[in-house]
């Protein structure tokens, strides 16, 4: 198996293909605004904050790879990457859709780019193949947190099929 095939499988597992853990599209499918902003304790992150965090890093890598560094998201520190837009339900839906769109755009680039391009260093980062490997692991970690938050709220089914 080549690196592209392996990464495409990992990348799809994070978004829309069931594997050892549920993909984020499925996890977020029926999450309401109230569930998205809920926190179990002060200082914990909400589901929406976790999705904003994932979006921040994926969007940053996408725009750096495309050479659009002037448009990349900025944050003064890691805590700022969890920052929410305004709390309207429409914005929750838009955050999810933007994450799905950015994730799919990175998948298209991975699928269609020459291997040389995938191994080209990204400004201020590693080559795309290494960044996507790290992002897939990062996504899987936070998807687990999102599932746990969903379970705590009773939003995750007691039994589900794979």
UniProtKB/TrEMBL annotation:
Signal peptide interval: none
Task: Spell out the protein name for this chain.
Answer: DinB family protein
Species, as recorded: Tigheibacillus halophilus
Q: Which residues form the DinB-like domain?
A: 24-146
């Amino acid at each position: 198996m080549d690196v592209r095939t392996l990464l495409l499988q990992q990348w799809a597992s994070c978004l829309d293909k069931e594997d050892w853990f549920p993909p984020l599209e499925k996890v977020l499918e029926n999450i309401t605004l109230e569930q998205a902003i809920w926190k179990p304790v002060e200082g914990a992150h909400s589901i929406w904050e976790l999705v904003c965090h994932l979006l921040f890093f994926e969007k940053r890598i996408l725009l750096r790879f495309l050479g659009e560094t002037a448009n990349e998201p900025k944050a003064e520190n890691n805590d700022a990457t969890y920052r929410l837009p305004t709390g309207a339900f429409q914005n929750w839906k838009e955050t999810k859709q933007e994450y799905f769109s950015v994730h799919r755009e990175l998948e298209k680039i991975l699928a269609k780019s020459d291997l040389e391009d995938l191994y080209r260093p990204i400004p201020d980062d590693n080559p795309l193949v290494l960044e996507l490997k790290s992002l897939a692991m990062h996504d899987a970690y936070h998807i687990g947190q999102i599932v746990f938050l969903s379970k705590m709220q009773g939003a995750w089914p007691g039994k589900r099929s794979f």
